[in-house]
TrEMBL record:
Gene3D superfamilies: Amidase signature (AS) domain
Any Pfam family: Amidase
Domain Amidase: 23-435
The protein's name: Amidase domain-containing protein
SUPFAM superfamilies cross-referenced by the UniProt entry: Amidase signature (AS) enzymes
Length: 472
């Protein structure tokens, strides 16, 4: 393991150095931004993204940018459907293929793949992930670490290439305390991101102080069992169900009241309608963000100004591996409507209604709940649209007799024995303090992360590369 393992605590956070990786769809002055694509290779921006400025001000050293699924998994067929996609999670033309560390050729899940793997191995103290639908929670669970997908608006998306409607920036770390400390640093209002004006408190909470071993005592936790199926490919399996049963019993013993089921009132309608509605909104947002983003570039060496330039460049550049990896997702973006037309606004209103009143808020109000729990693999679709926070905590590992499941491209293993999986805590917007308490108590009661080791370990010590005089 690397020799410097600094532990960040609330009392010493400011001015303390720790190591962090941040995902490469964030602009930084020293490292540029590529989103994994050769399109932005060598492109520069005039300043750091606001959350990066906060990290640096807090004394964080940014070690580098991690590999991501190119364009946050939107490049290829069926964006986000890992069993059908024509590209692969954690692959980008710039970075190559990131692998998970618990199984040979493990699918690291995406799109914050490198952030998950780097954290799992201790290459960095923690990392930043960026999520619209599962991009923090998915890779965090398969890297056996903590992932916090904050409420949309709690962290600034200034100079982050992501949907401004549904995207969020959050911490990935090996312990809940570390993740909470990092959230404390990056959270808060930002003049460059209007969504942050919705933060309902004056000062960002000291999140790490909510790491309370007794937090589950008296908490009302619901299980939205009717939402354990995301679509045909993503449904809770027997292992997930056994994991939920175990988790519920542990929480009950810790003094929580478990309400099971606490179903999403209109989940079937959400399943029926949300695919088309979310596609319409998501593609329109992506197109708009692309157009906005290029205006921030100081240098734009490939002279890419819109989505059609981007598609053309991707098809022509050999490192982009076209057509073996198609551009169906980008073509979807190219055909998208403008972001502000009524058909997009109507789609958003309808799907929001189903996810909020018909989903998380509906279930929580009906049963007077503090939080919900779900298997992490099916926990994000409603939460994405509800702009709600999700935290994943390691829950277990696939057992010996698990059959192998390949990804769509058949180059990575999605599922087999020893692969880690997580438990998600979901809550109402801006209730991170509660979720952090429950997730921490659960982490401390179970300590699942320590039960299985990665199949690879880094061999290089920081002092080997930093030199003898570095003081390390
Ligand atoms: C991306 O991952 C590959 C495979 O692990 C690695 O060789 C490469 O250095 C990584 N790239 C970056 C930019 O971290
Ligand atoms: C921890 O949680 C318990 C149970 O909710 C509560 O009684 C206690 O005051 C909390 N401790 C701290 C330090 O917040
Ligand atoms: C969802 O779609 C199925 C299949 O088309 C249909 O049978 C069912 O009634 C629909 N449910 C709702 C609540 O719309
Ligand atoms: C990906 O899709 C393209 C276009 O349909 C096809 O030419 C290519 O063979 C596919 N790649 C793989 C690995 O299936």
């Amino acid at each position: 393991m690397p020799s410097v393992q600094l532990k960040l605590t609330t009392t010493t956070a400011h001015g303390m150095v720790f190591r962090s990786w941040s995902k490469d769809n964030t602009a930084t002055t020293d490292l540029g931004i590529t989103c994994g694509s050769c399109v932005f290779y060598g492109a520069t921006v005039g300043r750091d993204a606001s959350y990066v400025q906060k990290l640096r001000k807090a004394g964080v050293i940014i070690l580098g940018k991690s590999n991501l699924s190119e364009w946050g998994n939107i490049r290829s067929t069926n964006p986000g459907n890992f069993r059908k996609s024509n590209s692969s999670n954690g692959w980008s033309a710039v970075g190559g293929q990131t692998l998970g560390v618990y199984y040979p050729n493990q699918d690291p899940i995406g799109s914050s793949s490198g952030s998950g793997v780097a954290t799992a191995l201790g290459l960095a103290f923690a990392a930043i992930g960026i999520e619209v639908g599962g991009s923090i929670i998915g890779p965090a669970q398969r890297s056996n670490i903590i992932g916090i997908k904050p409420t949309v608006g709690l962290t600034s998306r200034d100079l982050v290439f992501i949907s401004k409607r549904q995207g969020t920036v959050g911490p990935m770390a090996r312990t809940l305390e570390d993740a909470a400390s990092l959230l404390e640093i990056i959270g808060g209002k930002c003049p460059h991101d209007p969504e942050t004006s919705k933060i309902p408190f004056e000062h960002i909470p000291k999140y790490a102080r909510f790491c309370n071993k007794s937090a589950l005592k008296g908490a009302r936790i619901g299980i939205p069992r009717n939402a354990f199926r995301d679509n045909d490919e993503a449904a809770a399996d027997e292992i997930d169900l056994a994991g939920i049963a175990k988790a519920a019993s542990i929480m009950k013993d810790a003094g929580a009241e478990i309400i099971d089921p606490a179903d999403y009132p209109e989940y079937e309608t959400f399943l029926n309608e949300s695919g088309a509605l979310r596609g319409r909104v998501g593609f329109a947002d992506w197109k708009a963000d692309m157009a906005r983003y290029v205006t921030n570039l100081v240098d734009n060496p490939q002279n890419i100004n819109n989505i059609d330039d981007l598609v053309e460049f991707t098809q022509a550049h050999p490192k982009e591996e076209y057509p073996s990896r198609d551009v169906a997702g980008l073509l979807g973006v190219s055909k998208a409507m403008a972001q502000d037309v009524p058909r997009v606004e109507e789609a958003w209103e309808r799907v929001r209604e189903l996810a909020v009143r018909g989903g998380i808020n509906g279930a929580m109000k009906k049963h007077n709940l503090d939080a919900l729990i779900m298997p992490s693999s099916v926990s994000t679709s409603v939460a994405t649209v509800a702009l709600a926070p999700v935290i994943t905590v390691p829950l277990g590992f696939y057992p010996e007799n698990t059959g192998i499941v390949w990804n769509g491209r058949r180059n990575l293993v999605l599922q087999d024995k020893n692969l880690p999986f997580g438990l998600s805590f979901i809550g109402l917007p801006f209730t991170e303090t509660k979720l952090i308490g429950y997730a921490y108590a659960f982490e401390q009661l179970t300590k699942v992360r320590d039960q299985v080791d990665p199949i690879v370990m880094p061999k290089t010590e920081l002092r080997d590369v930093a030199g003898k005089d570095s003081g390390i």
